[in-house]
Amino acid sequence: MSEFTNGFKDILIKYESAKYDFFKWRFESKFANKLVLAFVFACLTGIFAQIRFYLPYTPVPITGQVFAVLLSGIILGKLYGGISQGLYAALGVAGVPWFSGGKAGLEILTGVTGGYIIGFIFASLIIGWFTDSYIKSRSFAGLISLMALGIAIIYIFGVVQLYLVLGVNAQKAIELGALPFIGVDIYKALIASAIAAAIVPGKAFGNELDAK
Predict the structure, then answer these.
(1) Dihedral angle at the C-alpha atoms of 171, 172, 173, 177, nearest 10 degrees?
(2) 39 domain residue, yes or no
(3) How much is the average pLDDT of 106-120?
(4) Within a domain: residue 164?
(5) Across the chain, what does the average pLDDT equal?
(6) Interhelix angle for 182-199 vs 65-76, to 10°?
(7) Which of 146, 18, 158, 152 minimizes the C-alpha distance to 77?
(8) In the predicted structure, residue 86 carries a pLDDT above the cut 90
(9) For residue 48, how far is the Cα from the chain centroid?
């Protein structure tokens, strides 16, 4: 039993060390490496965008993008999480067919669902900033709070653009652009939080404001 316990402890130590080494490397890495990571997450967002289905009473589809967006902020940290989503938006406008449904072009960004894509950028930026700046934000409770904040930011941008594009009132915009998705996005947030809690280190790897 003692050998098994010691072996399990060794595995945990190596696991914690691997998490710390990755985030330390990511924090101290050169611009080119960080940009590659950002591009990878832009690609992941594009892939998850193809997982979609429509509800009969809203023009906004349910997609897997939010899941990729939430994790991009956690894994890439401040600035580069946002850059990953900025790349996703910019390259999609430039013609890469990775918006939902394999679409591309400026008309998607200025259309009914374009506000959500803009929201992706700000959500990832804010999640990344908190993750890199505060060790306490990496607890499971802290991560769930960050995911909820990120989803709220995405909803705000999405609903505002929906309101402007469709010309409906604020209540109708919320009914079409937020309320139908709360349940499934909470589920995404829980999964993303569980994954994030398993991969982020519990000690300082950079210049955390609450590091002792």
Answers:
(1) 110
(2) yes
(3) 96
(4) yes
(5) 93
(6) 30
(7) 146
(8) yes
(9) 11
- Whether 19 is covered by a domain: the verdict is yes
pLDDT tier, 103 (very low <50, low <70, confident <90, very high otherwise): very high
pLDDT at 1 over 60: no
Q: Give phi and psi for 22, each to the nearest 5.
A: -65, -50
First to last CA, the chain: 36
Angle value at C-alpha 87, between 97 and 123, nearest 5 degrees: 110
Q: Please state, in angstroms and rounded to a whole number, the distance separating the CA atoms of residues 163 and 174.
A: 8
pTM above 0.85, yes or no: yes
Query: Is 56 domain-assigned?
Result: yes
pLDDT of 4: 66
Q: Is 41 helix (H, G, I), strand (E, B) or coil?
A: helix
